[in-house]
Each structure stands twice: as C-alpha cells, then as structure tokens.
Amino acid sequence: MKVHLFNPENDLALASGEANYTPPLSVRRFKEALAWLPKWYAEPGDVILTPDSRPEIPADATPAPWGWSANTVALFRRAGMNGPFPDVEAIRRLSHRRTALLLHRELSRDGNLPYPLPPEPVEVTDASEITSGDILLKSPWSCSGRGVVDCSGMTRESIVSIARGIIRRQGSVMMEKKLDKTEDFALLFETENGTTQFKGISSFFTSSARNAYGGNLCASQEELREKLPKLQLDATISAVNAAINRIIAPFYSGPVGVDMILYGPERTICPTIEVNLRRTMGFVSLELYNRLGRGIFRILPHPADGIQLIKHNPYFSATFTPEP
Length: 324
Hints:
- By secondary structure, the protein is of the alpha+beta class.
- The protein has 3 domains: about 1-90, no CATH class; about 120-175, 2-Layer Sandwich (Dna Ligase, domain 1), CATH 3.30.1490; about 180-320, ATP-grasp fold, B domain (D-amino Acid Aminotransferase, Chain A, domain 1, 2-Layer Sandwich).
- About 30% of the residues lie in helices and about 25% in strands.
- The strands form 3 sheets. It has an 8-stranded antiparallel β-sheet with strand order 12-11-8-9-10-13-15-14.
- The radius of gyration is 19 Å and the shape is globular.
C-alpha cells in the first residue's frame, strides 16, 4: 500500500535544502487545491495524505510523494511514517538543471541521434559572464516554466541584474540559446533498482499568459507518436533511456520526466529542455487516458467546465474535457 502526497512545492524545497521549508502563499494554495489529485493515479487501497486530513497509516505503507526532498521526508515523519526514504541529497543534486547539461553531453558523446543538438547550456556563477541576445536564463531548481526568463529584447544590464539575483539565491544560473519552439512534449521514464523503463509520451501545452503549465492532451500513444517526427523520436527514446540509465538510475528510483521541444522549420527535437526527478502532469495524463479516455486535461487559476478532478475551491480548477 502506498501513501500519496501531492507536494508541488518540491522543486522550491530542493532549492532551499531545508527540512522545514515553507512555500509562498500562492504555492500553498495550489497544493491545497490539488491535494486530492493523486486519486487519479493511486491504486485501490492506497492512502492520500492532504493538508486537512491525517488518515490512519499502516506501519508497512510505502511513502509515494509527488517529489522527494528533505522537506518531503519531514512531512512524512510528521504523519507518523518511518520510511523507507531515499537519499534526498542525491536527488537534490540530480534535480539541478546541470543534469540537463549532463544529459546533453551524454547524447552528444554517444552520437546516436539523427539530428544535430543545439548548443549545450552553460552554467554561470559570475553574472559578468552573461551575454545578451536571444538567450534563456534558468534557475537551477525550478519547474513547469517557472524560473525561466526569456531575455529577448532586454538590455544586457537587465539580464545581468536578473542573473545576479538567481546566482545569489541558488548559487548559479543556467544560460542557453533560445530556440524557435513549435511544440512542447515530454518523454516519461521510470527508474527502479538501477534500470530504466520508458513509460510513454506526454503532449502538453503552456499558458500563453504565464508560460507555465496549462494542460495535456490525453490520447493513445499511437496518436501522440503521430504528432512527432518518427525517426527522430525512436532514436531519442532509445538514446535518452540509455543516458538516464547511466546518470540517474544508479542513484534514484522513481518517475523521471524529460521535457523536450520541436523547433525550427524542420521540426527538430531538442531533447534536453528539463529533467524532472519526480512525478509530472504527464504521468497523470497517462492515467487519465487509461481511466477516462481521450480528452484534454487542464489546470487553470479559475473555475472551468468539464469533469472536475479535484474538490471545489476558490483558487484553481483541474478538469478533464472528453473529446472524440
């Protein structure tokens, strides 16, 4: 039996490194609003831990959070659980965006991709080394579009100022070339006992207003494959699976989501946008398709029509809209 916990603040908790981390109010509201989301991927007999409930937990139950950090361990301990808990310091290290850089180098070294990789990201610790132009700045620990700054059109002075702030808070900043994105998607994997298994494709979209996660197309894997260039996709799945097996699987067991894009007129894959060592909404969308069929899964900061996936609240909605 598993005890599920939806803790979307986990990337921020990893950045802090503190066991007693308190997220901002907006994140706390999001966590409380979507606390029951795990019911859509939990198995019969599992337990869901929420901010307003403390269910009785059997001694042999297995903790199953959205993501692991020192804060996650503290939350489970306060609920009366004694583990098993993973090596959260290893997870914190691998959740840093330099893992995307390491993945880029692994893929480049192997040479098994039928397309060129874009320039590799650069980790910067001195803001004076920041360049200007069409670049992105990424906070080392961040997710779902947050912590990413599009510097197009900014003055170098403004870019350096932003970089300096990120470096002050998290020790460094990742700088990479902005690509002409045409589509978002992700590959989903599961690592266990040193091995990696490909679980599926996630086709997601972002909120144009906030450049943050907006929702997923829940559809068959065959349909999702048709949206992507086949030869590039098959080679990417194989190469990324092998790279994760080398750089992540020996140190971490659990879900891994690798965000990617198609870019440019030739719809080339960039396979190293973001590496998430946690459950993602893509994993949720896989389960929603299995349980509810084809449709659109959305998370919005206001009420919305569709099948309601969470309890009513004044802050967020999570809905599923069936589509033929």
